[in-house]
């Protein structure tokens, strides 16, 4: 059999390698061989002031942000409620009144 570890998300034994990543075909979870569920859970998101952010927090945009395809920018001081933290370059998923669903970078917000 394979010497690959089971999926840390769904515990499937049918994992396979794609380059440096391990992939689960059942739940589509991807992880590195050195990373595990405990390592991924320790990621800490911080705002522009260094305050730790959590899912469900309310944040305030600290400067005007241009939005592609929109006629007006998101103004500094705009409050964003109930954020969701995600992996990636734009690490906050949220909904902004007048703009809809958006992704923001944590470096452009502060915890309200």
From TrEMBL:
<dbReference type="InterPro" id="IPR013987">
    <property type="entry name" value="YjdM_N"/>
</dbReference>
<dbReference type="Pfam" id="PF03831">
    <property type="entry name" value="YjdM"/>
</dbReference>
<dbReference type="InterPro" id="IPR004624">
    <property type="entry name" value="YjdM"/>
</dbReference>
<dbReference type="InterPro" id="IPR013988">
    <property type="entry name" value="YjdM_C"/>
</dbReference>
<protein>
    <recommendedName>
        <fullName>Protein YjdM</fullName>
    </recommendedName>
</protein>
<dbReference type="Pfam" id="PF08274">
    <property type="entry name" value="Zn_Ribbon_YjdM"/>
</dbReference>
<comment type="similarity">
    <text>Belongs to the YjdM family.</text>
</comment>
<feature type="domain" description="Protein YjdM C-terminal">
    <location>
        <begin position="46"/>
        <end position="112"/>
    </location>
</feature>
<feature type="domain" description="Protein YjdM N-terminal">
    <location>
        <begin position="4"/>
        <end position="32"/>
    </location>
</feature>
């Amino acid at each position: 059999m394979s010497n690959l570890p089971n999926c840390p998300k769904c515990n499937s034994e049918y994992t396979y390698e794609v380059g440096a990543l391990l992939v689960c075909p059942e739940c589509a979870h991807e992880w590195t061989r050195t990373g595990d569920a405990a390592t991924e859970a320790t990621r800490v998101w911080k705002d522009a002031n260094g305050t730790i952010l959590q899912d469900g927090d309310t944040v305030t945009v600290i400067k005007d942000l241009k939005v592609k395809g929109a006629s007006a920018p998101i103004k500094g001081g705009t409050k964003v409620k109930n954020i969701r933290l995600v992996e990636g370059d734009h690490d906050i998923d949220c909904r902004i009144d007048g703009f809809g669903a958006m992704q923001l970078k944590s470096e452009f917000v502060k915890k309200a």
